[in-house]
Write a structure and sequence with these properties.
heterodimer; A: alpha+beta; Glutaredoxin; 2 domains; about 45% helix; B: de novo design (two linked rop proteins); elongated
């Protein structure tokens, strides 16, 4: 992964969050939540700043970030697509929906499209089992999704912003 | 599904009937009455006795008697104790905790305060999944309203009792539903479980005695104290009292949350409340207990549901997910699906779980892709037993359950996979065969031109042929054919 240089502004933002939680090591998970919300993801460089601020080792911060599936070290797409792989969705055909997304977007799970517009992820049960199979794009929930609807869903987000012109995340 | 006679709402008594963002709505339905009575009229010991007498057992899956847990935590001496509400509902297919927190957050707050009074704690923590933003928002609103009304904070009901609640966020780790892992996660660490004893009731959050209960367990407490232990224990079976909320999902007509008295049979749940199987298909199995549970067959349809009966049947109560499967579901693939879940969620601390489950998954993958041998079934059983016996925490000890229960109940399906190379449900792709029906094939060459591996041959206007040794079962020919000349067998 190429090394990125954080701007001074970003570093200050991270420091601010740490101070908010009194730079306490025990608040690490809360700090990570808040920083990820601000920056979108938690690359190694960000983790280094957090470790220093909380007086913890970088290894510990990295250990926590990689342990929990909610934290991501790669940037998400502008429209993150999440497919629920809970049991209820699975038995109602979530796998076929997932492979259709993979086929349409030409990405694997955990990757983003080249233009940074979409990223594809699986998640474990959003608790909407009555609507299985469920797909989430950003915060919007699509229920009872059939593979044939996948193209339409993607199109909804491509419109108004022709491909090629999409901004890079 | 609310009007069904078979159902009885205790934990869900207020969900859908009150506005969860207005505390007065909750109070008008006897809300905070139990807390008031406890603080002003009863000693902690009396309250604990009432909970013990009611026979309430932990609704998170373990089924440990709640009153006993409170008593043990009360007896642990310390300057500081904690009440923790486990709202890390990670079991895929279960969403009762989310519904309670979204629909009736005050019942959990009230119960946590009662628990604090009983065990001698002035601080409560709710550990909730970050994936539940609405539940978090409603809980935050409820907490600030309770503080405003003096139902949280200092000197509650002028009794001298202080109590307040903080929210802690999970970050997507199934194993954090295990209490020791949950506590480590709240401390900002990786959510890895540790050996018990010491139990959290002796040494938990920050090394202090901590009482951990599940959301649904807490939601039952105010109702028990208002209506009495005798009322509660009159519902249910001999060893499992009260009701249980189940999340009914899968191939069933009515999906959603239900609450039934313990001892209701699976048949009543699936056919009377759930309205039977979708599309008139045949019932095959019901999976209870999530990734730690098992698959039950028609033989168990008339078994009364309670903690002990489900364990005897090779499954477990778990948090109450209930996934119904029909004849189109392959049980080997289902076992593999659960193993995939466990693999991803195993914290990796102990080797039986980390490595053992990986091996189980490999064997299942081998079987579903048509390379299975007869001995593999025995290997699965042996390895499963070792994992069960030697894993550190509940996740590992129960992870082979889906494998063992599917072998026990659907051995013929495993045998069909390994002996005949067939998947009876027609789900395992590698075992399927795409073939061209000569009579229907017009020789349009569409399939021939689209096959990505060149497995199809034939002359124009003559029936084509698929070379099975080259076919990768991608299904393109099946999709492209305009004459329905390609079959799956």
């Amino acid at each position: 992964m190429p090394k990125i240089k954080l701007s001074e502004n970003t570093v200050n933002q991270i420091k601010e969050v740490c101070t908010e939680f009194n730079n306490k090591e025990g608040e690490l998970i809360n700090v990570l939540h808040k920083v990820q919300k601000k920056l979108g993801y938690l690359p190694a460089e960000v983790q280094e700043v957090i470790a220093k601020e909380l007086n913890a080792s970088v290894a510990k911060v990295y250990g926590v970030v990689t342990f929990y599936s909610f934290f991501s070290m790669i940037p998400k797409g502008e429209f993150p697509i999440s497919i629920c792989m809970g049991t209820a969705c699975y038995v109602r055909g979530a796998e076929q929906v997932l492979s259709e997304f993979k086929r349409q977007l030409k990405v694997e799970v955990g990757e983003s499209t080249g233009d940074g517009k979409f990223s594809l992820n699986c998640l474990r049960c959003v608790g909407a089992c009555g609507l299985a199979p469920v797909v989430m794009v950003g915060e919007k929930v699509y229920g009872r999704v059939a593979p044939s609807q996948v193209k339409e869903i993607i199109k909804e987000y491509q419109e108004g912003c022709p491909s090629g012109n999409a901004k890079t995340a | 599904m609310n009007d069904n006679k078979k159902q009885l709402r205790i934990a869900l008594r207020n969900c859908g009937f009150i506005n969860p963002e207005i505390i007065d709505d909750y109070i008008s339905r006897d809300g905070y009455m139990a807390l008031g009575k406890c603080l002003t009229e009863h000693t902690p010991e009396e309250t604990i006795k009432e909970i013990k007498d009611s026979g309430l057992r932990g609704r998170g899956g373990g089924g440990f008697p709640t009153g006993l847990k409170w008593e043990i935590t009360r007896k642990s001496e310390s300057d500081q104790k904690y009440v923790v509400c486990n709202a890390d509902e990670g079991d895929p297919g279960a969403f009762m905790d989310r519904s309670i927190l979204e629909g009736d957050p005050h019942s959990v707050i009230e119960a946590m305060a009662i628990c604090g009074y009983c065990i001698g704690a002035d601080k409560g923590l709710v550990y909730i999944r970050a994936e539940y933003p609405l539940a978090i928002e409603r809980l935050q609103i409820a907490l600030s309203q309770a503080r405003e009304y003096g139902l949280l904070g200092e000197n509650i009901f002028r009794s001298g009792f202080n109590f307040d609640i903080e929210i802690r966020f999970g970050a997507g780790a199934f194993v954090c539903g295990e209490e020791t892992a949950l506590i480590h996660s709240m401390e900002g660490l990786r959510g890895e479980p540790t050996f018990k004893p010491p139990f959290p009731s002796v040494s938990g959050y920050l090394g202090k005695p901590t009482n951990v209960n599940n959301v649904e367990t807490f939601a039952n407490i105010p109702a028990i104290l208002n209506k009495g232990a005798a009322w509660f224990s009159s519902i249910g079976t001999e060893k499992s009292k009260g009701t249980k909320v189940f999340a009914l999902a899968g191939k069933i007509n009515n999906v959603g949350l239900i609450e039934v008295p313990m001892g209701t049979t699976l048949r009543e749940v699936i056919y009377e409340i759930g309205g039977g199987i979708r599309d008139g298909k045949k019932f095959k199995s019901v999976q209870t207990g999530g990734p730690s549970g098992g698959c039950l067959t028609t033989d168990f349809l008339d078994t009364p549901i309670d903690y002990d009966n489900l364990i005897d049947a090779g499954s477990m109560m778990g948090s109450g997910g209930m996934i119904v499967m029909d004849e189109d579901d392959c049980m080997v693939a289902i076992a593999k699906f659960y193993l995939e879940f466990t693999l991803e969620e195993s914290c990796g601390k102990c080797s039986p779980c980390r490595i053992g489950n990986k091996r189980l998954h490999e064997i299942l993958d081998k079987i579903t892709s048509g390379r299975g041998e007869f001995q593999d079934i025995e290997r699965l059983q042996l390895l499963s037993q070792v994992i069960k016996d030697t894993s550190l925490c509940g996740l590992g000890q129960t992870s082979p359950n889906p494998v063992l229960s599917t072998i026990a109940n659907f051995e013929d399906e495993y045998l069909a996979h390994v002996n005949e190379g067939k998947c009876p449900a027609g789900q395992c792709k590698a075992l399927l065969k795409y073939e061209i029906i000569e009579d229907l094939c017009t020789g349009c060459t569409l399939c021939f031109r689209n096959c990505p591996v060149g497995a199809i041959s034939g002359e124009r206007r003559q029936p084509h042929y698929i070379d099975q040794s080259l076919c990768i079962k991608c299904g393109v020919c099946y999709e492209k054919c305009k004459f329905n000349a390609i079959t799956l067998s």
